[in-house]
Amino acid sequence: MFDMMKKLQQAQEEMKKIKARLDTISVEGSSPEGKIKVNITGNRKIKGITFVDESVMSDKDQLEDYLVMAMNDAIEKADNLNETEMKSAAGSMMPGMGGLFK
After folding, report:
1. Is residue 35 a contact partner of residue 53, using CB atoms and an 8 Å limit?
2. Could you tell me the pLDDT band of residue 45, with boundaries at 50, 70 and 90?
3. Beta-ladder partners of 37
4. Quick check: 43 and 22 in contact, CB under 8 A?
5. Residues 6+ apart with CB under 8 A from 100
6. Cβ-based neighbours of 61, under 8 Å, separated by 6 or more
């Protein structure tokens, strides 16, 4: 019982380390044609938005659509990164339990 509690505590510490590391990793999402780029951390916090082609700013509807697409693309990439990191930690901390996060 004590051994299991110790492993759970180690797993919690490892998860904290991973979350801290994910704050230092950036991924980039983009809109169609790359007109807008969104930079986001592995923990899904937006760091910046870049308008590569400012012509998109002249059409409010297109701007809104492209912003949503770029943010969704960035969030999807951050989610994939986050999931990969968590699975890796779960697999190394508790062999055989990594399947819980699939």
Report:
1. yes
2. very high
3. 30, 50
4. yes
5. 90
6. none
Domain 24-92 has CATH 3.30.1310.10: yes
DSSP 68: H
Residue 98 DSSP class: G
Q: Where are the alpha helices (DSSP H) in the chain?
A: 2-22, 60-93
Q: What is the phi/psi pair of residue 88, to 5°?
A: -60, -45
Which pair of tokens denotes residue 42?
A: 């592995």
- The 10 Å Cβ neighbour count of residue 53 is 12
Over residues 11-20, the mean pLDDT reads 87
The whole-angstrom separation of Cα 88 and Cα 16 is 14
For the chain, the distance separating the N- and C-terminal CA atoms, rounded to the nearest angstrom, is: 26
- The full length of the chain comes to 102
pLDDT category, 88, cuts 50, 70, 90? confident
Q: How far apart are CA 57 and CA 52, in angstroms?
A: 10
